[in-house]
Amino acid sequence: MKIAVTGKVGQVVTSLIERGTAADHEVVAIGRPDLDLADPASVMRALQASTPDVIVSAAAYTAVDKAESENALAYAVNGTGAAAVAKAAQALGVPLIHISTDYVFDGTLDRPYVESDPTAPTGVYGLSKLAGEHAVLEGHDNSAVLRVAWVYSPFGGNFVKTMLRLAGDRDELGVVSDQVGNPTSALAIADGIIKVAGNMLSDDSPDLRGVFHMTARGEGSWADFAEAIFAASAARGGPSASVRHIGTVDYPTPATRPANSRLDCSLIAQVHGVILPDWRISLDDVMDRLQPASR
């Protein structure tokens, strides 16, 4: 299977290259300057030249807070850019897997969100990603949108790396405890993408297309996540800190975060046979790789 993925350095892209190559698939990562989501013409040219069996739309504008002041750019990349990828996939006649986010919800439900729950983004990032979802589903009927959340990995910048860095010179950290979600390894996400891609290539059933939630099993707050990171680090001789539980009100940000980011992943398990590992298991795997850098 030849997979073309948009982007070159993101967590999901890097994980997909690693996992796909290990599974004997060819993964071609395409990013700037050859492919620029803000330049739809470049998207078509680059994806056509890659001659893929399936396209994964992973590149995005992900600066959640900065998006509040860069509205036009966020929509150009996450909305118009996603539409351009869908147009290219349709022209090539190949399946498209588009990566989206928990930020399409406002976080007010008292249970994990299912795919049919009403969307209600609270900020520009979520609104632009929702625009991208609509553009993909309307532009190419051979598409699957995978909503992921709280992504971390051995690659790039993420919460795990930030916590380890801060613990290097602080004994205590205040971490938000009233936002709950499913911390999800990008490596596990890559495994799920490969499974979904294979299913879509071998079966043209409409049930395999549409919107799916795909996060790790288990849930926790950011404070819970931080405590697990520090426990895992300490067990490996790395930096650790005590966690002071604080509220969202104590850590104001330009963009409003959902209080409840939990996603119900029953549908993708039933339809695609994808069940990601518990986040604490995946965290251990990531920590095994990060630990030499954290000493």
UniProtKB/TrEMBL annotation:
Molecular function via GO: dTDP-4-dehydrorhamnose reductase activity
EC number assigned by the record: 1.1.1.133
Residue intervals of the RmlD-like substrate binding domain: 1-290
Domain of life from the UniProt record: Bacteria
Catalytic function, reaction form: dTDP-beta-L-rhamnose + NADP(+) = dTDP-4-dehydro-beta-L-rhamnose + NADPH + H(+)
Cofactor(s) the protein requires to work: Mg(2+)
Entry annotated with the keyword Oxidoreductase: yes
Cofactor info, note text: Binds 1 Mg(2+) ion per monomer.
Pathway in which the depicted protein is active: Carbohydrate biosynthesis; dTDP-L-rhamnose biosynthesis
GO terms of biological process kind: dTDP-rhamnose biosynthetic process
Keywords for this protein: NADP, Oxidoreductase
CDD domains: dTDP_HR_like_SDR_e (cd05254)
Function, in words: Catalyzes the reduction of dTDP-6-deoxy-L-lyxo-4-hexulose to yield dTDP-L-rhamnose.
Family: Belongs to the dTDP-4-dehydrorhamnose reductase family.
Protein name as annotated: dTDP-4-dehydrorhamnose reductase
Lineage: Bacteria, Pseudomonadati, Pseudomonadota, Alphaproteobacteria, Sphingomonadales
